[in-house]
Specification:
Blueprint: E1 8-11, H1 17-28, E2 32-37, H2 40-52, E3 56-61, H3 67-80, E4 86-89, H4 111-132, E5 137-142, H5 163-184, E6 190-196, H6 204-208, H7 217-229, E7 240-242, E8 245-247, H8 256-271
Parallel strand pairs: 1-2, 1-4, 2-3, 4-5, 5-6, 6-7
Antiparallel strand pairs: 7-8
Helix pairs in contact: 1-7, 3-4, 4-5, 5-8
Length: about 270
């Protein structure tokens, strides 16, 4: 990775798992890191750890199951920094968290769609002015190889709900957003890419699903950091990676009409919560 002195990074969902490791590595390489999570105690522990090693960090609390909280988080970021060089949308809910019963967000959206995708969609758009002011800047969307095509007749999965289906749909939505946003940002100096960091990392999310881990958070963090700071990715945008390798996502990600429908729905949903 390139040295990141003078740069600022926001990593959502960085009080645990792979996000925690990514935040620590970014700080070790010189970035001032905005740590995000729901648990202040865990957040402050990471901040203290980073500062104890000579790094710079600050904790921002927000529950991304609420679009108002997402707006508050964006305002908190804007109040603390005049630049944002790296945004890592990492926060998410796994396929088994909370059981296999359909849950909804504070705004009435299916919970995994809301937290894994819609919160990042809104947060990214709110922070684009800071990112544009910090070019070259990068956005990294932490998605998954688990992807399922969106049924636009029932995006909120009111019929035939399953946690895995909900999770996989939300992750494909992240990738569709990535490709769409890359086209919008072309020539701006802000790049956006998505990835599946590693398969079944040893994280709380994987353990909650009752799955035996197959890879480490270190491997996942390496892949995320590659997109966030590797000089080899400078200027490259709208891509999907499987680990360290460029890959192809589900075919719906490359469907222009499907991406338009998702974009229009997303704008409608975030505008409903001022």
């Amino acid at each position: 990775m390139a040295k990141l002195d003078g740069k600022c990074a926001l990593v959502t969902g960085s009080t645990d798992g792979v996000g925690r490791l990514v935040a620590a590595h970014l700080a070790a390489d010189g970035a001032s890191v905005l740590v995000h999570g729901r648990d202040p105690a865990r957040g402050e522990r990471l901040v203290a750890e980073i500062k104890g090693k000579g790094g710079a960090a600050e904790f921002l609390a927000a529950d991304l199951a609420s679009l108002r909280a997402v707006r508050d988080l964006a305002q908190a970021v804007q109040a603390r920094t005049e630049r944002l060089d790296i945004l890592v949308n990492n926060a998410g809910i796994g396929s088994a968290s909370g059981g296999n019963t359909r849950q909804v967000s504070a705004d009435g959206c299916e919970l995994r769609f809301a937290v894994n995708y819609l919160s990042g969609f809104l947060l990214t758009h709110l922070l684009l002015p800071l990112l544009r002011a910090s070019t070259p800047a990068r956005i990294v969307n932490v998605a998954s190889a688990g992807q399922q095509e969106i049924d636009f007749a029932d995006v909120m999965l009111t019929r035939g709900y399953g946690g895995t289906r909900a999770y996989c749909q939300s992750k494909l939505a992240q990738i569709m957003f990535t490709i769409d946003l890359a086209e919008t940002l072309k020539g701006s100096g802000v790049t956006v890419n998505a990835l599946h960091p590693a398969t079944y990392m040893n994280t709380t999310m994987v353990r909650e699903a009752g799955v035996t881990p197959l890879s480490s958070v270190e491997a996942g963090a390496e892949a995320i950091l590659n997109l966030a700071a590797s000089p080899a990715l400078q200027g490259r945008s709208g891509l999907y990676f499987n680990g360290l390798n460029e890959a192809r996502a589900n075919r719906q990600a490359y469907d222009t009409e499907a991406r338009r429908r998702l974009r229009d729905l997303s704008r409608e949903l975030i505008q409903a919560v001022a």
